[in-house]
Amino acid sequence: MLRGEKGIIFVAIAITAIVFLVFSIPQADAATTYYVDDDNCPGPGTGTQADPFCKIQDAINSASDGDTINVAAGTYDEYISIQKPVNLIGAGSAVTTLTYSGTDKENIVMFGNNAVPTFSQGMTFSGFKLISTSLIDDKEYINLRASGASPADPIIIKNNLFDGVNEDNGMVGIETVSGGSTSNFTIENNTFINAFRYCMWFNSAINVVIRGNTMIDARYTALAMCTSDTNQIYDVDIRCNTILNSTSWSLAADYYPGYGPWYSAMHIGSTVYNITIFCNTIADGFYHGIYIHDRGNPDLSNVHINCNDVYNNPNGSVNEVTSVTLDAENNWWGAVDGPGGSGPGSGDPVDAYFDVDPFLTAPREQSNTCIANITDPKVAVDMNGAPLEPGDVICYTAWINNTGGQDSTDNLGNEFEDPIPVHTTYNPGSLTINGAGNDDDISDGIGYDAVNDTIIWNGVIPAFGSIEISFCVTIDLDVPGGADIENQGIVYFDSDGDGINDEPGQGTDDPGTEPVGDPTVLSLGGGPSGGAASTKQVPALTQLGLLCLAGVIVFLGVINIRKKYT
Fold this sequence. Notes:
Blueprint: H1 3-24, E1 33-36, H2 56-62, E2 68-71, E3 74-77, E4 80-82, E5 87-90, E6 96-99, E7 107-112, E8 123-126, E9 129-131, E10 140-145, E11 155-158, E12 161-163, E13 172-176, E14 183-188, E15 191-193, E16 198-202, E17 205-211, E18 214-216, E19 221-227, E20 233-239, E21 242-244, E22 249-255, E23 273-278, E24 281-283, E25 288-293, E26 301-306, E27 309-311, E28 316-319, E29 326-327, E30 339-341, E31 347-350, E32 354-355, E33 374-375, E34 378-382, E35 393-402, E36 416-419, E37 424-426, E38 432-433, E39 436-437, E40 447-449, E41 454-457, E42 466-475, E43 484-487, E44 490-491, E45 506-507, E46 520-523, H3 543-565
Parallel strand pairs: 1-2, 2-5, 3-6, 4-7, 5-8, 6-9, 7-10, 8-11, 9-12, 10-13, 11-14, 12-15, 13-16, 14-17, 15-18, 16-19, 17-20, 18-21, 19-22, 20-23, 21-24, 22-25, 23-26, 24-27, 25-28, 29-32, 30-31
Antiparallel strand pairs: 33-35, 34-35, 35-42, 36-41, 36-44, 37-42, 38-39, 38-42, 40-41, 43-46, 44-45
């Protein structure tokens, strides 16, 4: 065999091995997106963008866990059963309507079933208007009989409009099943209008967030948490909702074993605990604002009612559980002199079983007590002394100061991001938090993110507290003379207590220069001017691209060998 032929065979074997390795690497199953459009009715359609399903249920039946279903603008008159975690996304509540005109079902949308399954992962239901005139007598638009995978991976129902159509038909917007231990769900940024009997009625709620919803003109109760079972409602965060013009009680808690809680709202079993009612507006009701109804032996441990605006509710707030005085500090009761009734002032009346002192003397948004307020100065020091030159080490220190009376909590996303400046390289191991060394591993949410060349930090920014973050960089040797080394971190914090960090974030401020919020800038006084190295990102290749590249390499190798040995 000729040497050239041996070379060709060697190259071919090598490339074949590379291709085999590429295609043998396990690939994660990609989620599929299905499409639904009533303009394609009567369908049924295949679920592609070019040939969408006519019916939402057909898309759900075809989908697998983690898939997404995009529903186009239109009106969909069908009963929807969701028995697996698929993301159901409407085109917006102004243009995408779900309804059910039949009389054989008790709801428009059913999550799970009587067994209350725990989904394998979270999911999102978003962007719909729900309305029906055929569901009556305590039927519900959404019956939630499924649990999310975990508190960090919940079922999310958000950005929907629930329309009760101004009929006294006993409708409920969202309900959970009694005794079902329904858990790990988030209800956020939904709007309920036009005379629901109950906007939301939870018979079970464990590890739950109810945040940023608007509930207007409820016939009986806007937000009801009711159960005749124990150990079914706990770890609930009711935060930054707006409840207006409720005909009966705006927000109530009721321990009511043995018979139906017709006028009650929050039904607490004897072992219920960890209920936070924070940053809500509960106003202009016909009767009670907050009602805690004792029908047994409730615990009510770790129940906190703070930083709410509660006003213009003529019968005020009542706690019938006389064995427990509830924490109701730092609320605005509609008057500078505090709540009326057993309180010291002329605002909404309260009974003696609420601890209302201290109270706010203005609405919460005007009070530093109930907000997080961040200042974030940042300085830079040339550790080698002036003048600043290539090869010098710069150490940065940023202080995240919370001068407000509320913690800014550890929410989704980073609380601090600080990109490493252009023309510099991060010094490994130089990061410190509050003066203590920190490894660069970001698995705990704090460290040097090498992929994005950024310092990140996650955590609570405590009320009246401070976080100090320091790190060092080395100026590149090939930086142009006279170049600026500019750096600015971004603080993401929750200013209003809604559990979501503000967007956009707030830039750190160089305290020595104007204006406020400007970056920290150092200028090189001289040095080599050879020009900064230019870098380009190499695009990632798909498997097909790698195969084509391998073919080109084989072809060029063969040509080169044939030239050499012919």
